[in-house]
């Protein structure tokens, strides 16, 4: 069915120079000779085969396949060239009669060619022993040009000889395809694909090349193989096809052309500058610690997973970053970048950094993973669903909530640029003791407080939106707020002021059962809001007056607990309590106005009530309280 040579030893009953077909011939469907291994045949001792003539008049791509001597494997399909296989005799000695020839191009010695006995494959035919080109020693400071012969294909367009030395190699394939297929190459010079398509048919076929340069009309195809290069230079119009392979880049470089295909792209160091989008790149990308990949388009790394232990720099980039991020590296936005990170980044624990003038947009919790956000630009959350953001956001930038969903912040957020709620709800806390922001809020949606402890919010809230108190704790508003969408207190306490002269809201207030509106001011205070609900309103104005306004109305059906305040039960104050209970707590002084003051209920709870009544002359006070329930 198939035969793969992968580091082992195969012993054939075949004799040089007598046979052209081995006595023990393997017939197979598929032969894979792209790896390492050893092949042994018989050589009559002390006989040493005489070397055939050197095929130095043929194209270099053809010289490694010349002088076919004996066939060992008959295959319908072949993979690899056999160039990395070692040929031995029956005693384990390498069969060799090597000859070296200098190769000159342009008047300069560019390489030394070695010819010797070797193993080679023929396309869709099998494995042979031949005498041909086995190695090219590339000379320091020189470049060997490998040009495809017109119309050459298959073995005639494949170089299976080992490339070694400190020189470079240039591929000129015109409009055709050539391949390199030796897995033991270790040359360190530059590789230039000047034209056509270079296909890599063995792991390490590029040796330890210091630079892979792909010209604007050229293509490099990894073809499922693994290569390591020092630096990448993909010129505008070039194509690098990962094609199921792995490319290790040691020292960054530039990619102005197209990156495509599946596989692995590994940036080990330096800065790799990727210009433009690469929508067809599905390879997984790894950025090592100390390495940077710089993008001017958010789609520069395609759609594969991105393991980031280094830095992903989005320099002026726009668009959607769809890669799934992991690792503890950095994602930096600079130079006006506007990027939406929409991948599943739940495995990313590093940091997002936004410079002034940039914008990072996310749409679900997984987009930020567990990473921190150093925000000097704008962080926008645009969501139609409800989710919790536990990440801490710092910096001098802005936070924007968009979309119809509810976003709950449970982290300690220290960003100072302000918060804008354009749609949906922004909730601080989730019933615990965390979840905070600093600075002002422009609220055109809903701002909700849901903490179990005492929490002071010192910013100012403006806009047409509403505020909700839904946590069991106490939220203290110390600013004078101008939002007009109304306030609902469903649980816990919303406190206006903290014993000083500030702390106020405008718009309607609804205090539901179980909720408390506390007024803690250092002086006289008039609550000028329309008031409704069945909850509790508690006052402490440091012994000064507390009053309702004509706008308060008579819809409140809860309890007014007057603490350290003076309160006149008359006029609009009485109207406001038509359906409500007045409770006189310790420290209160309640003066009942003349006439009948009709309220829903009255509770005496340690406070002082002052009536206009005279003993012994009157039987009914001039200032009479009429109520349904007296406690």
TrEMBL record:
<protein>
    <recommendedName>
        <fullName>Autotransporter outer membrane beta-barrel domain-containing protein</fullName>
    </recommendedName>
</protein>
<dbReference type="InterPro" id="IPR013425">
    <property type="entry name" value="Autotrns_rpt"/>
</dbReference>
<keyword id="KW-0732">Signal</keyword>
<dbReference type="InterPro" id="IPR011050">
    <property type="entry name" value="Pectin_lyase_fold/virulence"/>
</dbReference>
<dbReference type="InterPro" id="IPR012332">
    <property type="entry name" value="Autotransporter_pectin_lyase_C"/>
</dbReference>
<dbReference type="Pfam" id="PF12951">
    <property type="entry name" value="PATR"/>
</dbReference>
């Amino acid at each position: 069915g198939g035969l793969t040579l992968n580091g082992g030893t195969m012993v054939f009953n075949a004799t040089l120079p007598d046979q052209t077909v081995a006595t023990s011939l393997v017939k197979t469907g598929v032969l894979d000779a792209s790896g390492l291994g050893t092949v042994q045949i018989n050589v009559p001792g002390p006989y040493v085969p005489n070397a055939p003539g050197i095929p130095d008049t043929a194209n270099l791509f053809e010289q490694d396949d010349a002088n076919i001597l004996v066939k060992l494997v008959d295959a319908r399909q072949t993979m690899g060239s056999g160039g990395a296989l070692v040929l031995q005799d029956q005693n384990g000695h390498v069969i060799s009669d090597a000859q070296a020839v200098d190769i000159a191009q342009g008047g300069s010695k560019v390489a030394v060619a070695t010819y010797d006995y070797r193993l080679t494959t023929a396309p869709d035919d099998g494995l042979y022993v031949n005498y041909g080109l086995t190695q090219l020693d590339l000379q320091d400071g020189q470049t060997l040009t490998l040009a495809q012969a017109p119309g050459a294909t298959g073995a005639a367009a494949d170089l299976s000889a080992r490339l070694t030395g400190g020189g470079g190699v240039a591929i000129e394939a015109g409009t055709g395809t050539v391949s390199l297929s030796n897995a033991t190459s270790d040359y360190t010079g530059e590789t230039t694909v000047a034209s056509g398509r270079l296909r890599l048919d063995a792991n390490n076929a590029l040796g330890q090349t210091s630079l892979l340069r792909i010209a604007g009309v050229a293509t490099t195809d990894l073809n499922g193989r693994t290569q390591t290069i020092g630096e990448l230079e993909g010129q505008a119009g070039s194509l690098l096809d990962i094609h199921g392979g792995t490319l290790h880049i040691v020292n960054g470089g530039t990619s102005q052309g197209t990156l495509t295909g599946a596989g692995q792209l590994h940036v080990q160091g330096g800065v790799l500058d990727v210009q433009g989008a690469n929508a067809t790149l599905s390879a997984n990308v790894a950025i090592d610690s100390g390495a940077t990949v710089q993008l001017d388009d958010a789609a520069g790394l395609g759609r594969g997973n991105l393991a980031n232990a280094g830095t992903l720099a989005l320099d002026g980039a726009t668009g959607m970053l769809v890669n799934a991020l992991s690792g503890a590296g950095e994602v930096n936005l600079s130079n006006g970048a506007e990027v939406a990170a929409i991948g599943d980044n739940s495995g990313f624990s590093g940091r997002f950094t936004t410079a002034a003038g940039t914008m990072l947009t996310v749409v679900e919790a997984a987009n930020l993973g567990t990473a921190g956000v150093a925000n000097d630009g704008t962080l926008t959350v645009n969501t139609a669903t409800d989710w919790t953001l536990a990440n801490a956001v710092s910096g001098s930038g802005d936070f924007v909530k968009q979309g119809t969903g509810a976003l709950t912040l449970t982290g300690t957020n220290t960003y100072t640029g302000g918060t804008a709620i354009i749609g949906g709800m922004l909730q601080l806390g989730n019933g615990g003791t965390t979840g905070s922001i600093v600075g002002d809020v422009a609220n055109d949606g809903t701002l909700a407080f849901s903490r179990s402890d005492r929490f002071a919010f010192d910013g100012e809230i403006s806009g047409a939106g509403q505020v909700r108190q839904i946590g069991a704790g106490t939220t203290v508003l110390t600013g004078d707020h101008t939002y007009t969408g109304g306030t609902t207190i469903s649980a816990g306490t919303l406190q206006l002021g903290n014993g000083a002269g500030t702390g106020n809201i405008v718009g309607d207030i609804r205090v539901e059962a179980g909720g408390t509106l506390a007024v803690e001011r250092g002086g006289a205070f008039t609550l000028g809001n329309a008031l409704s609900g069945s909850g509790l309103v508690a006052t402490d104005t440091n012994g000064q007056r507390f009053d309702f306004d004509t706008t308060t109305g008579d819809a409140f059906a809860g309890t007014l607990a007057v603490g350290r305040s003076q309160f006149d039960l008359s006029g609009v104050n009485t109207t406001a309590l038509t359906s409500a209970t007045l409770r006189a707590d310790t420290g209160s002084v309640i003066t009942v106005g003349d006439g009948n003051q009709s309220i829903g209920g009255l509770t005496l709870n340690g406070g002082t009530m002052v009536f206009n009544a005279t003993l012994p002359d009157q039987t009914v006070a001039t200032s009479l309280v009429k109520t349904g329930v007296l406690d």
